[in-house]
Structure formats: C-alpha cells, structure tokens
Write a structure and sequence with these properties.
By secondary structure, the protein is of the alpha+beta class. The protein has helices spanning 11-22, 67-77, 94-100, 191-205, 219-227, and strands spanning 23-25, 31-34, 47-52, 57-61, 107-113, 125-126, 153-158, 161-171, 175-182, 209-213, 231-239. The strands form two sheets. Strands 4-3-11-5-10-9-8-7-6 form a nine-stranded mixed beta sheet, sandwiched between helices.
Length: 240
C-alpha cells in the first residue's frame, strides 16, 4: 500500500516517483529502458533532470553515460534554481548539458499529481479484456493487443463507441503515469478530462498515486491539466 495515499507528498517525492515510473533502473540507479508495461524495450534517454517547486532537483543518467560526463552533469544540476511558475522554462545550464552530451535536441514538460478529490464530470467505464467486445473500438483498434498491459484503462463511451481513453502507460507499485488519447472528432467536449479523472480513481484503488505529465508543446494535454486543476509539482527535461 502506498503510504502517500490520503497524504500530501512533497514535490521531491513526486518527482522521484515520476522518474521511477518512467524508466527502469539498475542497482547503480542508472536508467536503462523506458518502463513500458507491454512487451518490447526502448532505450531510456541519456539524461533526465527533474526540477521541482520546492527547489529540489533530481537527475538520472543512462547506464552507458561515462562517469566523467555524469559527474559534470550532476555538478551543474546542483546549481539549478527553483521552479516557481507553471510556464515553459529551460534549465539554467541547458547549453552546458547539450554540449556535454553533444546534441541539440531535448524534450521538456510539466509534471502533475492528480488530486485525491478529482472526480469525472461525465460517466466513464473501466475497459478490460472481459468487456471490451461490448463496445465499438473503431479508431482504437491498436488498444486490443495492449488492453491487458495498460491497466487500469478507463474510457468514455459515445453511442456505444469508445471515443476517449486514459490508461496506465508507466507503472510502479507506488505510482502510475497516465496515457491519454481522444479521437479527433470528439475533442473539445470535456471527454479527455473525464477519463483522466476516472482513471485516477481506479489507480488509487490499487494503492498507487496517479501522475500526469506532458510536453510544453502539447497544448491540448495541458488544457486537460488546467481543466482538472491538477497539482503542478515540477518540470522534467530529457536528452536522448
């Protein structure tokens, strides 16, 4: 059972749960692969940085990043300032990180906790292997082979058709990360917010915390976070 249930975890604790949910770790706390629940493996990014609203910053390095480079990156991380506002912001030392890892590409975005009292404004359904054939999955055919892995999986049904889905796409004992998809013709109706809220309820029943993260460029996903008044705790930054 997660000891944070019914309590308010710190931003630092949430960021630690986030990175553990996102990536597999070895005994040296180096990250190895993306923690996808379905079969197959994809390499983790070489560098992860999580900055929080309480001033803490945590970092992870992929197993093949040389110790010398990792030490230089870690020293820079220790000089990162507090993240105050929920606005797109680059790390203080972004140029140095990019130079050390010899790349020009990175991803970044806000991280949220879904508050305990969040409830769906519309009726949602928990979709499993047992009941999925009761509904039309037109547009969601890809969900069929993955249904057993991304659980819980919560959907909104329109005229017996699954039109919006939120499911667990990164899973640990303590936290689940949300994966959200709404068919294009059904966007803008509040369906996405409803399934996220319904999914969060199912995750809490399993004794885990429901987390939600996205990229700064994903405006529709950020609107869902705003609509649900999710609790912002920090920013992630990754270099592949």
């Amino acid at each position: 059972m997660n000891h944070w249930i019914d309590k308010e975890p710190t931003a630092a604790a949430l960021m630690e749960m986030h990175v553990r949910a996102m990536f597999t770790h070895d005994r040296d706390m180096r990250i190895r692969t993306i923690n996808e629940p379905w079969p197959g493996e994809e390499l983790a990014p070489r560098f992860f940085l999580g900055r929080t609203i309480d001033g803490s910053a945590i970092c992870r390095f992929r197993h093949d990043v040389p110790e010398r480079i990792a030490a230089q990156l870690k020293a820079l991380v220790e000089d990162e300032p507090i993240v105050n506002d929920e606005v797109p912001t680059k790390p203080k030392h972004v140029a140095a990180y990019m130079n050390l890892l010899r790349t020009e590409h990175y991803t970044s975005g806000p991280c949220y906790r879904i508050p305990d009292k969040t409830t769906p404004a519309k009726q949602t359904v928990w979709i499993t292997r047992e009941n999925m054939n009761d509904y039309s999955l037109t547009g969601f055919e890809w969900l069929i082979p993955e249904i057993d892995y991304g659980q819980p999986c919560v959907a909104l049904i329109h005229e017996n058709r699954v039109v919006s889905v939120c499911r667990s796409v990164r899973i640990t004992e303590g936290a689940h990360e949300a994966g959200l998809e709404t068919l294009e013709e059904f966007r803008g109706r509040g369906y996405a917010a409803a399934v996220v809220a319904g999914w969060a309820i199912e995750v809490r029943k399993r004794g885990a915390l429901p987390l939600y993260s996205t990229s700064w460029e994903n405006y529709s996903s950020r609107r869902v976070a705003s609509k649900l008044i999710l609790s912002y705790y920090g920013v992630n930054f990754t270099i592949r």
